[in-house]
Amino acid sequence: MEEVKLLGTWPSPFSYRVIWALKLKGVDYQYIEEDLSNKSDSLLQYNPVYKKIPVLVHGGKPISESTVILEYIEEVWPQHSLLPTDPYEKAHAKPGFPVSFLAAKKTSKSTASAFYSLFTATGEEQDKHLKEAKELLKIIEEQGLGKRKFFNGDSIGLTDIVFGWIAGWLNILTEVGGVKLLEPGSFPTLQAWIGNFKEHAVIKENLPDHDGMLAFYKRVREKMIASPIQ
Ligand SMILES: N[C@@H](CCC(=O)N[C@@H](CS)C(=O)NCC(=O)O)C(=O)O
Q1: pLDDT of 75 higher than 70
Q2: How far apart are CA 125 and CA 222, in angstroms?
Q3: How far apart are CA 39 and CA 219, in angstroms?
Q4: Using alpha carbons only, how large is the chain's radius of gyration in Å?
Q5: Is the CB of 112 under 6 A from ligand 1?
Q6: 54: CA distance to ligand 1 center in Å?
Q7: From what superkingdom does this record's organism come (predicted)?
Q8: Is 51 in the pocket of ligand 1 (CB under 6 A)?
Q9: What percent of the chain has pLDDT over 90?
């Protein structure tokens, strides 16, 4: 068997995409925690241009970009498939699909960064991002999830994994940013999905520590406000 290694960082939702997929499929792997303030030679060698985690190394060969890694995992380890077999259903379940339904909404930024800005911005700028985030969540809920338990049907699939940050990270980012987004009664279908997703045995066991994340993201926000990226 070829060795599988994952380079990641514990508070990153992108690392967790890969962790969830490997765990759901029962693939054994070695996890290597990266310090992004002092990147390892391995990371610089495996992902020389972007220098970002996650990187999956399979039999010595590196793959980066979480959604690319997810599709690779699905092909190499077809057990516990995370994609439907029907080609039409499959087209709607691939990681690229959320991009296509969200593309209908022209945002100033990518989906993830529109939400991330909620957490890094302040004042009027933050209000603008909050409005945009609400519009995006509505699209994700209505166009993406519809009336289903999971995005692709009755079981967890790649789209759920791609949107996992909504379940595990969004509340932390809004709490730290001091904005209200997922309130009781708002986005009921999406909130039901968050419950279903976090209750899944594999996800439940593989989520970063809540208090640790709060402390980590508080430090990040303080730093960003003190010296914003232009
Ligand atoms: N599009 C990438 C995003 C990955 C990403 O943003 N990784 C961050 C950590 S959450 C990183 O490695 N940042 C280091 C840097 O930018 O120098 C993916 O989906 O894998």
Answers
A1: yes
A2: 17
A3: 20
A4: 18
A5: no
A6: 7
A7: Eukaryota
A8: yes
A9: 71
Could you tell me the domains of the chain?
Answer: 4-76 (3.40.30.10), 87-226 (1.20.1050.10)
Q: Ligand 1, closest atom to CA 9?
A: 9
Pocket flag, ligand 1, residue 44 (CB < 6 Å): no
pLDDT in tens, 123-173: 998 998 899 889 889 988 988 888 899 998 899 999 999 999 999 999 999
**Residue 36 beta carbon below 6 angstroms from any ligand 1 atom:** yes
Per DSSP, helices labelled H in the chain are: 13-24, 41-46, 66-76, 87-93, 96-103, 111-120, 123-139, 158-162, 164-168, 170-177, 188-199, 201-205, 210-226
Q: Whose CA is nearest to atom 1 of ligand 1?
A: 65
Angle at 169 between CA 164 and CA 170, to 5 degrees: 100
CB of residue 52 inside a 6 A radius of ligand 1: yes
